[in-house]
Structures are given as C-alpha cells and as structure tokens.
Design goal:
By secondary structure, this protein is an alpha+beta fold. It has seven helices and 15 strands. It has two domains: 146 residues, ph1033 like domains (ph1033 like fold, Roll); 120 residues, no CATH class. The longest helix has 12 residues. About 11% of the residues have low confidence.
C-alpha cells in the first residue's frame, strides 16, 4: 500500500456540496467521493490518501484522509472541458471542516514532513514512506480532537482491528456522549450494510438512493456506567435498519440482536 497526496484549491474549484458532505460524513462516518489524482495512473484500491487544502487563504493544511476504492480512470477535467484528468474513487474515513479544523500547513513544513513537496500544484504525488508513520501518528492525534480515536491492534482474524474511544462526556452547552465515526465506518466495512436482524439491504430495496444506508447499534449502550471505553467494531457494533434499531431500544436495557430475532420468528 502506498500513500498519496490529493489536493484542493478553493480558488480553482468550488466545492458547492461541502456543507452537505460534512453532514453526510458526520451521519455515516464515511464519505464516498471521486477525486482527481493529477497525472497519477499507478494508484490502486487500498492505497492511502490525504487531502490538502491549498491556496493563499488560511487556514491551509490537511483536512481529510481515506482509502482508494477504484482503479484510476480518465475523465473530463474538473475546470476545463477541453482537457482531461485522472480520477479515483475514495472512501474518506475522516473529513474535517477545512475552514477551521485543518492540520496546519506550517506543521507540514517541519521535519520530517518537509521532505514532501506540500507546495505541489498537482495531486497524486507519493508521500515518502519514511514520513508516513509520523504523519499517521500526528494526524490521529489531530483528529482525536474531533471524536475519532483509532488504536491499532493485532487480530487473530487475519485483518487489522481498531478500537475506538467513545463515550467521553464533553460540555457543549449540555453534556452529550461522543460517538466515533471511524468505529461506525469500520463496522460497516467489516459487516456490510445488511440489517443483522431482519436482513433488509436498503441498496437492494431502494436502489442507488439507499446504497450504503444503515444504522449501527452499540450492543452495550454508551449511557452505561463505564464512561469512556474502547469499542471493537467487530464485536461491539452491529449494522441494523432504523426500524430494528428502534425496536432494540424499545426496552430498557435494550434487547440483544438474538432476542429481537427470536421475537420476529415468534
């Protein structure tokens, strides 16, 4: 897996759906987009990407990260219909508000990040492998400020498992329980978007508009006495449709998935 830099310059391309996309990410913990990768053709599904806000207006810096989900393909240029550009599909696992929450460009000019050409005018450049571990570490620390807290663990199941800190109380003006968007995304990637109670898949039932739509149920409620905890998205979270999700919480304490299945059969 390689790590690449993608870029966005607000002066060159107006992201007209940005506010809507931020809301989609907050609701789903995932944003699926197509993005230009400059002239880079050797970029493949599974490669890691970071998105950099460029231009003259501050704040500038990294504000999104994700994984490539398609092969590179050619299409009409996003600003010039007489030119072409190379595009890839990306699942963004982090999308922060670029007007306020960026990982600052000034920090990227320091060692060891200075080895990367952050001033590039074209996306798709490789981020040097020697830089990536520290970049991932500082990026993870940065996004913890926004409720995302991945903790890498080994797995006996042959895949990487992350635990995510959830349930920390934050004063906003009132106290609320934080939920990790990354934990939600990891649950969906591992278990899919089919309800584990009634077997409904919104993509199959409603077509494109329903693709990827699903609720994620915490098998142990965040409102319990434990406070902040580490959530394993394979064991602690389950994908369920909104109706089944409501029925799981119809009683207190909530029903288990197995109990609700039995009631449906009965």
């Amino acid at each position: 897996m390689n790590t690449f830099l993608l870029t966005w310059n607000p002066k060159k391309w107006r992201w007209s759906t940005l506010n809507e996309d931020l809301n989609t990410f907050l609701a789903r913990g995932l944003l699926e987009m197509t993005w230009s990768c400059g002239n880079r053709k050797a970029i493949y599904p599974g490669d890691r990407v970071f998105l950099l806000k460029q231009g003259q207006e501050e704040p500038r810096g990294l504000f999104a990260s994700g994984y490539v989900t398609s092969a590179a393909r050619e299409g009409q240029h996003f600003t010039d219909p007489d030119r072409t550009a190379i595009y890839v599909d990306v699942d963004f696992d982090v999308l922060l508000d670029p007007s306020r929450d960026v990982f600052p460009r000034a920090r990227l000019d320091r060692r060891p990040f200075a080895a990367v050409n952050w001033s590039t005018q074209s996306g798709g450049i490789v981020i040097a492998p020697a830089v990536v571990p520290e970049l991932e570490s500082q990026w993870a620390e940065h996004v913890r400020l926004h409720g995302l807290n991945p903790i890498s663990l080994g797995s006996e199941r042959g895949m990487a498992i992350h635990l995510y800190a959830e349930g920390r109380r934050r004063t906003v003006p009132a106290s609320r329980l934080e939920r990790s968007a990354s934990a939600r995304r990891a649950c969906i990637l591992a278990q899919g978007c089919r309800c584990l109670v009634c077997d409904v898949d919104f993509g199959e039932r409603y077509g494109v508009m329903g693709r990827g739509y699903i609720h994620v149920h915490h098998q142990e409620t965040l409102a319990g006495p434990r406070g902040e905890r580490e959530t394993n998205p394979l064991d602690d979270l389950v994908p369920v449709c909104p109706n089944c999700h409501a029925m799981l919480h119809h009683e207190n304490p909530p029903l288990t998935v197995a109990e609700l299945r039995r009631r449906l059969r009965d």
